[in-house]
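Here is one chain, start to finish.
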Amino acid sequence: YDRDLAQAGVTMVELMITIFVFSIFLAVVLSSLVGITKASTQAQVVSRSSTGVLNVFQNFDRAIRYADVINAPGSAAGGRYVEFRVPAKDASSVATCFQWRYVPGTQLLQSRQWPDGSTGSKTDWVTKLTSVFDDGANYPFVLVPSGGTGSALQQLKLTIDAGNASQKGALVSTTFVARNS
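Its structure:
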C-alpha cells in the first residue's frame, strides 16, 4: 500500500476553490448570453418596426403626393386623424377621399378611403401599423399650410414612433408635399 496513493484525493478547500472559480466563469458566460439575447431582441424590434414604418410611409406617399387638399388634422372617438382628397384621374372617374387615423388606446395606425361625395361607401378601417407609441397631442399628423414655410404647396408632417408591445424600435419623421394643392 503506497502512502502517496492514499492521499491522492481532493481536499475540501481545493473543492471549494474550484467551485468558486467555476461559479465566476459561469456568471461571466451567463451575463454575456443575456446581453447577446437582449441585443438580438432589440435588433429584431428595430428591423420589424422600421419595415412597418417604411411601408406606411410608402402607402401614405402614393396617395398624398397627388392630393389637391389636406384638411387640418383633428381628434374624434379617442383617435387623431387627417383627411385628404385626391382628384379624379380623368373625366370618367371620381375623386377619392382618404382618412388616416391613430388610436392611442390601441396603438394602431389605420386608413380607409371612399369616393368623394359618397360618405356612405367608406371602406372599413385597415390597420397599417401596430404598436405605435403616443408621443403627444399633435402626434402623428401636423399640417404645414401652403405659404407657411415658403412653399406654395400644403405639406403634412408624419411622425411615427413604433416598436413592439413593450419597447420602442423606430422613430421616423418625414414631410409629405401635396403636389396638386
